[in-house]
């Protein structure tokens, strides 16, 4: 990293952050310019314990910390990620896909963590900021690092792989997410497959055999390939959901079979668990140990969270994000609940491009076929009861006099902020 040092050169840092609010003592502060200029928060970061910071500006002599003066802080962060990757002597697992990236990341962290000291991406840190920060914040004794990777165009994942140099890569799905940016599924597949092309010859690719566009990626690498799904190397059988949508199943694999009680809700998470099993066991973790660990993953928020109000109403909070595939999975989960009435509060699915209207209509038809009442927040195509905003949606829910035996699903793209509906219901 090309930087001019101003202040004490012998300074020790532990990790990095671009957010002065989340900074802990010893972290390097990286001021990025976005809606707000991170340089305006350097003094706060130092006051919160940063011993050093990057800067594109002349250092303020009143700020008592080491300044690393760089031309471009964002570029310097990426270079920092490359340096951090160089000190990781273990597995680096990269995950991408149109659906299931974060859940698979969480399950992979549990699977690898059962056998190796494992660090993983926080939240959905999956871009040119989050990936290098994940690497920079990996503990010095980390034996495995699990990273989520997103893409908003051709070449994006290749750039992230140039930073992270993954040794294992997982592709979950190629679906109708971000079509406004990519145009068609073939272009999505081209972009997602960059993660497979980045693998070294001794790498491991883990591919979903039930997604034809993902399965076809096996020809894009010289690394070893493991598949999962109904025709894959790693398969499930005897899948049963309990009353809170937690799957139980038997995994069958080249290493034998094992029983799994999954700590992530919804039948769709069985496939994500198979991906995690294939990756971890394929890298040498014992199957029975991995299967046991999947009962206790640390899951990211607002993804099929199950809660019950004091009145007995079940609330499924899946409000972090949405696209047509994940919408159907969430509706299937709601339909599987033993409930008297099932209501879905649905917001818009963003970035679907020209097919947006039809995609929303199809989700509404799916809900109707499953016998689910729909409250549509700002989207007429879903059908059901259409409202303009969250307060109106809550008003309609209160009019329904919901109580014991009823269930409500809340789901939309991130821009919708529908987790506030779930929070209001749980608050009473």
TrEMBL record:
Q: Which GO terms describe its biological process?
A: cell division; cell wall organization; peptidoglycan biosynthetic process; regulation of cell shape
The answer to whether UniProt assigns keyword Electron transport to this entry is: no
Q: Which UniProt keywords apply?
A: ATP-binding, Cell cycle, Cell division, Cell shape, Cell wall biogenesis/degradation, Cytoplasm, Ligase, Nucleotide-binding, Peptidoglycan synthesis
**InterPro entries on file:** Mur-like_cat_sf (IPR036565), Mur_ligase_C (IPR004101), Mur_ligase_C_dom_sf (IPR036615), Mur_ligase_cen (IPR013221), MurCDEF_CellWall_CoF430Synth (IPR051046), MurE/MurF_N (IPR035911), UDP-N-AcMur_synth (IPR005863)
| Coiled-coil intervals | none
Q: Which Pfam families match?
A: Mur_ligase_C, Mur_ligase_M
Domain Mur ligase central as annotated: residue spans? 95-280
Q: Which molecular function GO terms apply here?
A: ATP binding; UDP-N-acetylmuramoyl-tripeptide-D-alanyl-D-alanine ligase activity
Q: Which residues form the Mur ligase C-terminal domain?
A: 303-413
Cytoplasm as UniProt keyword: yes
- Extract the NCBIfam families matched here: murF (TIGR01143)
Q: Which PANTHER family match?
A: UDP-N-ACETYLMURAMOYL-TRIPEPTIDE--D-ALANYL-D-ALANINE LIGASE
Q: What is this protein called?
A: UDP-MurNAc-pentapeptide synthetase
